[in-house]
Amino acid sequence: MELIGRINRKKIYYIQVRNNPNWESNLPKNDWIAFTVANKEDEELIPSVVKICIDKNVAYTSSTGEAAHHTEDYFDEEIAWNMVDYELKTKKEFDSENLTPTISDENFEDSFWFTYTSIYDDNFLIDKIVCIDFTTQKIKNQLIELIEKVNNGFILNNKPNES
Length: 163
Prior knowledge:
alpha/beta; 163 residues; single chain; 6 strands
């Protein structure tokens, strides 16, 4: 996992999962945002990556790319199964306040804008965004350019820079 930039207090990290067998060992242990980028040809990677992110206590997920909605559906499904598993093991009802929120948008810039401006939690600081790149294109440079533009005052699609 590589720190590629900051936007105000949020650190932006990048990790490529394709052909990187040790990628998951570098993920944060809690209180982080997964910003996933996957296209149709990456769908076979989605289930295992989602499971690992949930196991690493991701606080929020934001998915983008051609497979954005598919990725979000996998996150939602894994969260639901974990909730059922918890209830079966503990015989207690799962507290819905602890559900991991998910969102998706196929537009890379819009999804990134939402991720760094709108995701927060009143109970703890979420200052790490981990871009998990499933793609063969390796979108690292595109993300670095976008971070630089934002830090230089660029406003995405007429949205104010609120972070």
